[in-house]
Amino acid sequence: MSPSRCPTRAAGQLDDETVNAAEWQVDSWLARVRWRGPDSVHADVSLWNTVDLPPRFGLAKEILLAHREEALAKLPTLIEQGEITRSNLKTWPLFDSIRDEPAVQLLLENSSLAGE
């Protein structure tokens, strides 16, 4: 699932092309990780500047770099902001590596989480 279905907090500040390109890049890296392993994207992801992108891309960077604790720490805030939805957590391959974490399971069980 492409994250374009997520609301973009900075939608008025970024053009769709920039956000779409970032979404494509994340999905491309995810595919490469599955094909060649996490080391195949580490250098590229480490250099990726996400400062001017919606916050979900900073989370994507943490997950792609296998920074689990940092990603799990950011997740509740991004959900609260509407950057990540229940549907994203359930279906976006980005979350495959952390979906079984107890903290993520609690977030999925939370009835106030948007985006069923």
How would you portray this structure in words?
This protein is mainly α. It has one domain. Helix content is 57%, strand content 0%. It has 6 helices and no strands. The model is unreliable at 4-11 (pLDDT under 50).
Largest sheet: number of strands, sense, barrel closure:
none
pLDDT < 50 runs, ≥5 residues: 4-11
Helix content: 55-70%
- Total strand count, please? 0
Order of helices and strands: HHHHHH
Assign an overall shape. Answer: globular
Radius of gyration, CA atoms, in whole angstroms? 13 Å
* Count of DSSP-assigned helices: 6
Average pLDDT metric: 87
Give the count of structural domains.
Answer: 1
Strand content: under 5%
Distance between the termini: 14 Å
Question: By helix and strand content, what is the structural category?
Answer: mainly alpha
